[in-house]
Amino acid sequence: MAAEGSASTACTGSSLLQPVSHITNLPLDQVNFVVCQLCALVSAFWFRLFLHPSRTSPFIRHVVATLLGLYFALFCFGWYALHFLVQSGLTYGIMILTGVEHMHKYCLLVALSYLSLCQITRVYVFDYGMYSADFTGPMMVITQKITSVAFEIHDGMARKEEHLTPGQKILAIRRMPSLLEYFSYNCNFMGILAGPTSSYNDYIAFIEGDPCRHRDQEADRKSGGKLRQSEPSPNTEVVRKVATSFFCLLVFLSVCKVFPVERNIDDDFIANTPLYAQVVYLYLSMLTTRPKYYFVWTLADAINNAAGFGFNGYHDDGSPRWDLISNLRILNIETATSFKVFLDNWNIQTAHWLKRVCYERCPYHPTAATFILSAMWHGAYPGYYLTFLTGIVVTLAARAVRHNVRPYFLQSPSHKMVYDVITWGATQIAICYTVIPFVLLSVGPSIKFYRSWYFSLHIGCILLAVALPVKSRHNRKHLIQDPAQHPLQGTDSNSSRKDKTT
Fold first, then answer.
1. CA 469 to CA 94: how far, in whole Å?
2. What count of Cα atoms within 13 Å lies in the side-chain half-sphere of residue 28?
3. What spatial distance separates the first Cα and last Cα of the chain, rounded to whole Å?
4. Helix axis angle, 413-440 relative to 275-287, nearest 10°?
5. 378 carries an active-site annotation
6. Given this model, what pLDDT does residue 110 score?
7. pLDDT tens, 419-474?
8. Which stretch of DSSP H or E encloses residue 422?
9. How far apart are CA 437 and CA 389, in angstroms?
10. Burial (0-12, 13-18, 19+ Cβ within 10 Å), 217
11. Are 384 and 437 in contact (CB under 8 A)?
12. 232: which residues sit within 8 A by CB, 6+ positions away?
């Protein structure tokens, strides 16, 4: 009976696909999510081909994108999808009533508070521990969009031009969005279920059929005034990303139960397994949790590309780039040789959001503030906070080691290779050690795991961060200048040159 009750509360959306759920032995909410994303992919092709901006007005494109998005949300989440409208409508009212001077602060407070209230209610009232598709997932993306718009309106309408960074000048919004534009940006069918977040100017330029409009001046300067080629087709890139996403899904379904994360805190496993075997198992168990994120984010990227959104200029060989709003780079993640490189390539759009909203604007302890904001945004599970608090210490230690140790290994290629191998292993273990509370969710199991490791990485990272000198952020500012970037990458390329956090 308990199992039946759990299953009945696992999904508040449509039960039309219940037979598919029984056949595949997957939760109904996950089946609904995958089917809606596949429908969104088909709709995206139709949207690009039959509602092309050359023959369809922006008004129609906004209306269709919004209505399709709300339908998919209702199918997946039922009446809980109303929270998307309430959160968006509430913050739009704040933008209109409070004025541009302080609207960004109020919108951040209200949007994050509303999201946190929904997360706390879902976790502690309804289904604690249900690590599945839920209505607060889309709200996390909508919260990013709401706060991004508020800060960009503040930059464009309340701050002087000379006080803005080059990136803020490109993203600044010079007029208040209409209600339709605002809801279309927040709730369009391409990103309502899994994102990714994009800038408002990029989205509006896509809807109006001129994706390079607000970046033209920078693009022309860096390309020597060359004329752009005709609009490229995303079909090849979409096929590649869809194939990649379903390969990741197949890998996840095949191996996720072979290496359960919970075994890391099993008493018999801890007592009878040698330390080296525990380290290897930790790596394998956490490695098998990542393909589900690869699946969701790569498919979401493909949906946007299929609609014509995400074009980011051309490679040096003339081939089109479709990574403007990509959320991850799988190969770079799996071969990362530093904590920073891993973070630079994981959940990229969230990292950009944290950088623009918090890291660049926080005058004191920006790294700690950004990790705390990230923890609050992720949800109410205590394990999230343990992960991000641990991440602060690991980030500071990794930065100290890189500044002080790496230069000694750059004298020859062989030394550099040795350094890369060692740092790859250290980075992967540090990531697994940091992220395991994020998967275990609760304090008790997380502390049990850390106790079985004698809090070794915590202690080691604190000692490294204290013992090794690192230049202050103020003294490093001249090293973070924005170099010549790709014409259409705008502000996001320089994020890899900052000590950003995620």
1. 45
2. 20
3. 41
4. 70
5. yes
6. 97
7. 999 999 999 999 999 999 999 999 999 999 999 999 999 999 999 999 987 765 54
8. helix 413-440
9. 11
10. exposed
11. yes
12. 311, 320
DSSP of 61-76: HHHHHHHHHHHHHHHH
Question: Which residue among 312, 347, 352, 458 is the active-site one?
Answer: 347
**What residues contact 148, with CB distance under 8 A and at least 6 apart?**
197, 199, 200, 353, 356, 357
pLDDT at position 2, please?
37
Q: What is the DSSP letter of 320?
A: B
Residue 231's pLDDT band (boundaries 50, 70, 90)? confident
Residues 231 and 340 sit within 8 Å (Cβ to Cβ): no
* Active-site residue identified among 378, 458, 486, 494: 378
Strand, coil or helix: what is 314? strand
SS3 233: coil
Dihedral sign from CA coordinates of 208, 210, 216, 222: positive
For helices 28-50 and 58-77, angle between their N-to-C axes, nearest 10 degrees? 170
SS3 (DSSP) at 43: helix
Residues listed for the chain: 502
- Please report which residue ranges of 122-234 form alpha helices under DSSP H: 136-157, 166-171, 179-187, 200-208, 216-222
